[in-house]
Amino acid sequence: MLAYILRRLLYALPILIGVNLLTFALFFVVNTPDDMARLQLGVKHVTPEAIQKWKAERGYDRPLFWNPAAGGLQQLSDTIFFDKSARMFVGDFGQAEDGRDIAREITSRMGPSLAIALPTFVLGLFVTISLALILAFFRATALDFWGVVACVGLMSISSLFYIIGGQYLVAKVWQLVPISGFGEGLDAWRFLVLPVLIGVVGGIGSSTRWYRTIFLEEVGKDYVRTARAKGLPETLVFFRHILKNAMIPILTGVVVVIPLLFMGSLLTESFFGIPGLGSYTIDAINAQDFAVVRSMVFIGSVLYIAGLILTDISYTLVDPRIRFE
Amino acid sequence: MPSIPDTNDALLTVQGLSLAIRRGRAHTPAVAGLDFSLRAGETLALVGESGCGKSLTAQALMRLLPPAIRVTAGQVRFQGRELLNLPEAAMRELRGRGMGMIFQEPATSLNPVLTVGQQIGEVLVRHLGLQGRAVRERAEALLQQVGIADPARRLDEYPFQLSGGMKQRVMIAMALAGEPSLLIADEPSTALDVTVQSQILDLLQELQARRGMALLLITHDLGVVARMAHRVGVMYAGQLVELASRDAFFQEARHPYSRALFAALPEAVPRGARLQALAGQVPAFAAMPKACRFAERCDRVQSLCREQAPLLTPLAGNPENQVRCHFPGSGSFLAAAAGPGAGSPTFGPALLEVSGLQVHFPIRKGILQRVRGQVRAVDGVSLELAPGRTLALVGESGCGKTTVGKALMQLLPLTAGSVRWQGQALAGQGGKDRSWRRRMQMVFQDPFASLNPRMTVGDILLEGMQALGVVTDAAAGRAASAALLEQVGLQGDSLDRYPHEFSGGQRQRIAIARALAVSPQVLICDEPTSALDVSVQAQILNLLKDLQERLQMAYLFITHNFAVVEYLAHEVAVMYLGRVVERGSTARVLAAPAHPYTEVLLSAVPRLDGRGRPIALAGETPSPAAPPAGCHFHPRCPRAVALCRERYPDLLPLADGRQVACHLPAASAVQLDGEG
């Protein structure tokens, strides 16, 4: 088991290096520092001198991989790749356009992002699994039919509609919570209720339908017939036999997104004015702040890899067939 | 055979039970007017081919029918209570308590994520009201009772950690946990190897005798019926066509369908005779004839049979025995099956010589996935195939027989060994020479899975011919394909149809045609009939025999079915843990096996006359990753001595030409040897 986890972590190393190289290529080879400077300076101020100055201020005037002008190890370290990309491995993301330290910004914005993403995730999982269980329990009845119709309806509505509609109804018409903003400490809950609620409702359609399919697939299996032949009541058949088997595909399907919860949600955070990582990313994209966008792309990839490793590990935890191999 | 307690009170009475399949608003009758009863301590076997409604009947008794199937009429009385209108809650009380059920496929019928202890325990909690430690103790006792060694440890294991036989024992323990008075066993041993099947049947018989349970045994295997049943019910197309005591049934089955079933069995037919394959197919439920349902396939059919439906009528002199036929047959059916013996086949020089064939699979472990051991799937097998001859490769699952076939086809790389074709060496180790496949082709076990469902029959046949360059233009390919279908007894117009439009037997014919497409000289058949019903099996075996006579092909026939071996094979090689333990002419080996494992295997096959006691085989087949030192069979061998633990015996010839890898071959075989 431990050997297995260690092996998975070892496999992740070359992938991380590959991700780092790809991100680098995307931001510095495809989109050269000169292009960045032009975009940042704006059409009016672009002169060769201004571009040179902009690059020099940010250290983009150096060679990409290899600096023959420098001596010793500096030939490697005094380059754009080492300074801007390789150092991301140790959590050094450099500075944003406004001069602030990106790493510090990220740590302070993680909290608000998690405050929304975590409750949305946990609550959403609970609600959709419960709904899917109900639909599967009453399979092939009118409840099941109309439930699936409702799910398809919910899926078909844009998430923007949920956000704007929710803000209009709950915050503006009923005035139950503020439309947007964020507070410190325990006071924050008033600002969190609406985005969490909307996040949960927006996910009901697709997740419920998916989980229902998983449950129904299990219902048809032979071991369920065996359980019924024992004379077990239907509730026990569902909660002991079917749920436990269906949780294997469900859990492993959702574990992959757990690390990504840190990243927050781009849409929700910017609409509700939450100072999290999602709105940070959106703002950086709008401001064409490449240092920040680059950092977020890299962190997103790393978290995704972490999610995949967690998925593999969670398989071994919930499925005895894999645990004992 | 335990005697039935002398009581006239039926435990279970089924009257006029009818089931229908619902499709939209239409109901198609599936099972029609079933009548039978069962007393305590009695075994009734329900026999029939797939789709005859025997499993549906069992599920209807438990009221566990799939949602699309409805009971349309009839009564089921169990212990004096009418089951069909019992409230669901009362029915649940009865399931597992009054009647227990064992299912066919132990691998999928157990919950994969619950431990054995939990699965047995929940019956004890539900029906016997046991709590806490008592549950575990009783579960342990139950496992002990069904013959599982080290039950305390097994309780905490998951089903995937158990072998197939052990899983079925756990299923039986579960069914017995509620101490039912009726046990319904739906093909309880079909998915198991013969030696394991023999153990399971013994166990069921012993438990039945001890507890006085009634047993409703659903099976398609007449050998199992002969061994287990007191009475036999034969089902055809949703009807009970014959109901008789076991002795009466096996001496003189009366219904033409029952008689046809016997005639289709390789073990019931004299050696060399042709199997009597039933013509046509079971009518579809939607297009069921109004009169006799068997009329279209019956060899005794008369005009009355097409006009008036026969009733299940008691026979004169013995009202216990009933038959649904206007003109029941009489006399021993075996005589009717006798036919001309096959001529002695020609004997040529070996076409294919395999020597020292090894196929090992590496076991990788640890962080760096280094090779830590080898699974010796095939560990030194030598054999020869001659034109027009059939060599049967026999053994239980995991013995490596299928791996031999795949390795010969170059579907798996060889670890060691040489293969010579007419004296010339074919590509050696790990070769990927596809030209082998023009000379050798393979027919696979399951025709439902081995044909691509998205390709037409024509494309399936053409693909192989084009890949190996047998034909180049489409028109010639089409003509060749049509001729192939003709050869295997299918209409030429089947070319543009898809595999799902054909029955199992027809699909296996297509699979054979596909193999024949490149005119191979060697045909490797991997259990080609084990997924088929007996009457269909007879058709396929006859076809294979005809093709061999006509085309002088050499067959390597991989199977676990000794009746098929006896019918088809000239020579037989018995495999155990990757090695051949005995090899020789079929007649010699089957009449007087020399290796103790061959003896055990042969004794475990249920015989139609119900006689012969199986030799008990201790333990389970060891893992081919760590075979026992010395002779691989010695830990389970009744004759093992010190030498067997030390040295693996060489494959040495006896005087009659057969070869045996045993330090102490059976005296009877050696004696025979001395005479011959």
Notes on the structure:
The complex is a heterodimer of chains A (325) and B (676). With 325 residues, chain A is mostly helical. Chain A has 2 domains: 32-90, no CATH class; 102-318, MetI-like (MetI-like fold, Orthogonal Bundle), CATH 1.10.3720. Helices cover 73% and strands 0% of the residues of chain A. In chain A, α7 crosses α9, α9 (189-219) packs across α11 (234-255) and α11 runs antiparallel to α14 (290-318). Chain A is globular and about 80 Å long. With 676 residues, chain B is α/β, with parallel strands linked by helices. Chain B is built from 24 helices and 24 strands. In chain B, a hairpin with a 5-residue loop joins β23 (652-653) and β24 (659-660). In chain B, α4 (116-128) packs across α5 (133-145), α4 (116-128) runs parallel beside α7 and α16 packs parallel to α18 (504-516). The longest helix of chain B is centred in the N-terminal third of the chain and has 18 residues, at 194-211. At the A-B interface, α1, α10 and α11 of A face α2, α4 and α7 of B.
Could you name the key traits of this structure?
heterodimer; A: 325 residues; mainly alpha; MetI-like fold; 2 domains; globular; B: 676 residues; alpha/beta; eight-stranded mixed sheet
Briefly summarize what is shown.
The complex is a heterodimer of chains A (325) and B (676). Chain A is an all-alpha fold. Chain A contains 15 helices and no strands.
